[in-house]
Design goal:
single chain, alpha+beta, Beta Polymerase, domain 2, 2 domains, two-stranded antiparallel ribbon, 7 helices, 17% strand
């Protein structure tokens, strides 16, 4: 197993390439989740974190994927719906290109021991709670069903409500292209019809309502030092971190500290 320092170095190298492409093409990115927390609290990685997270507004996301694929085709491997027919999640993972990463697909690429950066599309979210819950639950069920189709031996239906179990069974019977198409349509539809007050990534691991933020927190960006490099964070970084983690300057208990490769 590779050391966490090696993984952090590799993830940071990928992140800098992504940020360079975004700056070149005037695409605004933001450090997100644990990476944002690391920038504020540690001026770098959270000591036990081994990947990096970025967010890009949905209006720029398609252009971002195209620019990164073209500008870094000899350096990076992108894993998303367009590049990996087995990929079950509606965002992009970015790996350094090598003999392993350019020949593997989900889930083997994700378990190959190579570091990665997750880049999430940040879209508009309904202000009405029932609609927001519907968005998150629909994307969750479709994504879980997609994962179950790819690695069925690792997934069982964990839903207890009859309606959720029924929805999962229906989704599980769908072909993979249909599942992914419905996921794309759901996220795009809610992004198109929702007011520009809240933003979210409905496929995030924290789910509803923890992945919903005020748009005003993202209207501007500012720079924070991360390993000596000045990178973009949302202007509402304090509000975001407080909302997501509470007392974010106090590290979590050691028993809860775990990276992706542990």
């Amino acid at each position: 197993m590779r050391s966490i320092e090696e993984l952090q170095d590799e993830a940071f190298k990928i992140c800098l390439m992504i940020c360079e492409v975004c700056d070149k093409h005037n695409i605004r990115y933001y450090l997100a989740a644990g990476t944002l927390l690391g920038a504020v609290r540690h001026k770098g990685f959270i000591p036990w974190d081994d990947d990096m997270d970025l967010e890009i507004d949905m209006k720029d996301y398609k252009r971002f994927k195209k620019a990164l694929a073209e500008d870094c085709k000899d350096k990076l491997v992108l894993q998303n719906y367009q590049t990996d027919k087995r990929c079950p999640f509606p965002f992009t993972k970015v790996f350094l290109k090598n003999d392993v990463t350019e020949s593997l697909y989900y889930p083997y690429l994700n378990r190959s021991g190579n570091a990665f950066v997750d880049v999430f599309p940040l879209g508009k979210c309904p202000t009405a709670k029932p609609l927001a819950k519907a968005l998150f639950k629909t994307v969750e069920v479709l994504t879980v069903a997609a994962k179950a189709k790819v690695i069925p031996e690792e997934f069982e239906c964990g839903y207890t409500k009859k309606s959720a179990r029924t929805a999962y069974k229906i989704a599980r019977a769908m072909p993979m292209p249909v599942l992914r198409g419905l996921t794309r349509f759901t996220i795009s539809f809610y992004n198109a019809v929702s007011p520009n007050e809240l933003v979210c990534y409905p496929g995030g691991k924290y789910g509803y309502p923890d992945e919903i933020y005020k748009r005003e927190w993202y209207l501007q960006s500012e720079k924070k030092s991360f390993r000596g490099y000045m990178l973009n964070v949302p202007s509402g970084w304090n509000e975001i971190l407080t909302y997501k983690y509470g007392d974010y300057m106090t590290p979590i208990d050691e028993s809860e500290r775990q990276g992706h490769f542990e």
